[in-house]
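Can you make up a polypeptide sequence alongside its tokenized fold?
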Amino acid sequence: MFNNFKKGGNKMKEYELVLSRDYIVKIKAENKEKAKEYAEIFIGDPKDESTPEDREEKRFEILEINSEFNEALDCEEIEE
């Protein structure tokens, strides 16, 4: 889409990287195992939240996002 920009006209290079993010999820479930399972299954894949204006101004384009790792690492019951 943005192979050449009018500002400078330089062709953009393509990069692949691993981006790690952690989430703290509060969930109600029957037990700890189900809480972990449901969080892993139902927390959706990331999406590109940049706008066309962001991409034009900052000169980038996100080509693809794939979720490669989704595992609940810790689970604690919250006392009410």
Q: What stands out?
A: The chain has one domain: 1-73.
